[in-house]
Amino acid sequence: MEISTKMKALKTAPARFIEEAVKEFVRTSPLNRLPFNPDCTIFDEPLIGFADGDDAIFTEYKNIIAPTHLTPREALAKAYGEEPADLPEHLSVISWILPIAARTRESNRRETRIPTRLWAHTRWYGEKFNDALRNHLVQLLTEMDYRAVAPVLQPYFRVDTNSRGPYSNWSERHIAYAAGLGTFSLSDGFITERGIAHRCGSVVTDLVLPATAKKGDNPYANCLFYVNRSCRACIARCPGEAITEKGHDKVQCSKYQRENIGYLLKEYEVGVAGCGLCQVKVPCEFTNPAKKVKKSGKQPQSV
Predict the structure, then answer these.
(1) 3-class SS of residue 197
(2) Tens digit of pLDDT for each residue in 136-157?
(3) Are 247 and 186 in contact (CB under 8 A)?
(4) Are residues 232 and 113 in contact, defined by beta-carbon separation less than 8 angstroms?
(5) Are the CB atoms for 31 and 129 separated by under 8 Å?
(6) 289 backbone φψ class: left, alpha, beta (φ>0; ψ -120 to 50)
(7) Most buried pick, 34, 114, 126, 214, via CB within 10 A?
(8) Whole-angstrom Cα distance, residue 137 to residue 144?
(9) Confidence at 37, pLDDT banded by 50, 70, 90
(10) Rounded-to-integer distance, Cα 56 and Cα 189, Å
(11) pLDDT tens digits, residue range 193-236?
């Protein structure tokens, strides 16, 4: 598609243009196939949401996550060497969810201690594809004269550790929440309408997009444990005993993976293997289980 045609489509319906651009890349990119098996798709059709770049929630994340967590305005300004106040009045955040394909999820359901090779390859090569999608969207926007940045690909992106475990200065899960794509879970995962087994990504831009309404009436509205205490499946699925009714212990989780899964990096030939056992064989694996509860008349509890 020529630039002029793209510009016309973008001006006419910006949200639809971005949604179709993301979906087309997921559908057609050869990177969304496992290298050892080109017939095996890594991710299914994505979910896409948008957030107002100056939504107050991004400032709240400095208290919830860490003072170093960037607002979208800070992230875009740092990438362009500008002051946040000098950027355009309106900024947007594009966030997406990449649901993991059924074949991969099914393979990991059978495991109780370590992830399958298919899951580990999906984690490793899937995030490489996610980076390619980030770059694709940034390039698409910048070639049409919009500022755009994928914060996790910037030199300023970092992951630190405190007494509660690792945290970053740009949390894709929290960005997805701000963009109305789902809510959090007992296991620290993010439950969308397509479930908890996924990867997520985002781009900040000065293209003005309509904000997606946030889902649920609290940050845990899609998690059955918080809705009515009816589910503890992720607790039973965690081989490292890192999930309890008090939540997810990131220090214990990291310790288990380091001591019990580390050897898989060489065996599976990946840089990161992940675990993911708490994301499969659970009610929220590929759907939002709280929707049925809400239809029955039961209401989520506040957290």
Answers:
(1) coil
(2) 999 999 999 999 999 999 999 9
(3) yes
(4) no
(5) yes
(6) alpha
(7) 126
(8) 11
(9) confident
(10) 22
(11) 999 999 999 999 999 999 999 876 789 999 999 999 999 999 99
- Dihedral of alpha carbons 266, 267, 271, 277, sign: negative
**Residue at 55: amino acid letter:** D
Q: Six-digit token pair at 219?
A: 């940050």
**11-25 mean pLDDT:** 95
Say which residue, 210 or 2, is predicted with more confidence.
210
> Exposed, middle or buried, 146 (CB in 10 Å: 0-12/13-18/19+)?
middle
Q: Are 227 and 218 in contact (CB under 8 A)?
A: no
Joined together, the tokens standing for residue 15 give: 């949200």
Distance CA 163, CA 155 (A): 25
**Residue 111 identity:** E
User: Which residue in the block uniquely carries the two structure tokens 């940045």?
Assistant: 149
Measured in Å, how far apart are the chain's first and last C-alpha atoms?
Answer: 48
Q: Which of 237, 236, 231 is nearest to 289 (CA)?
A: 231
Q: What is the CB-side half-sphere exposure of residue 81 using CA atoms within 13 A?
A: 0
55-72 tens-digit pLDDT: 999 999 999 999 999 999
**Close Cβ partners of 87 (under 8 Å, ≥ 6 residues apart):** 73, 76, 77, 80, 147, 206
Type of residue at 30: P
Which amino acid does the sequence have at 240? G
Do residues 58 and 39 lie in contact, with contact meaning Cβ atoms separated by under 8 Å? no
Residue found under tokens 């969308």: 192
**What span, in angstroms and rounded, lies between the C-alpha atoms of 134 and 79?**
14
Per-domain residue ranges for the chain?
A: 3-291
CA-atom Rg of the chain in angstroms: 19
Are 150 and 134 a contacting pair, CB within 8 Å? yes
